[in-house]
Structure of ABC transporter ATP-binding protein:
Amino acid sequence: MLSLENIVIYRDKKPLLQLSAEVAKGEVLTVMGPSGAGKSTLLQAIAGQLQAPFSIAGQIKINGVVINDMDAHLRKVGIMFQDALLFEHMTVGENIAFAMPADRQKNKQMKRDAINELLAAVDLDGIADRAVNTLSGGQQARVSLIRTLASQPEVVLLDEPFSKLDVALRGQIRSWTFSQLKARKIPAVLVTHDKDDALAAGGDIIELL
């Protein structure tokens, strides 16, 4: 579970946003609001990437553990952005392997099997050896999702991840993403301007002013 307890984010010591929320395993909390309201800043705070002039009060907990002072790389928080941000000099499989915890990489066959299993989960069987720049936008979005899942995150942050997909793909990739998070019982926070995204997420919605 992700708990946001009495969170206040300040910009130059002035309150930018205030909220409290709990996100159960497999649930998605949606945060909406105009540009500048602090949506992405909230995600940065959860991920441990908040920088001056921003600061935070309150407690962020993952499974009951306060993570406020924990280094970003130790928080086990995965992030998906608007762009897939795949490494173009790597194959699809190498992109996914890069995200895997070190212990999963000790056995090459085990790693390969895990990669193929993840690809099959999003209907991308057999593309592990392809260059990422040969993939369509929708395929890249799916690879980005499973690369995030391959890191075995305890929380996933979604920063407008569907906004650059065309209408035909958007609903499909959105459904895949939410179903994968639910199946793996991973709590998530979605930042979006799109009400359809919020409704599809099916969880609580917080609207920032």
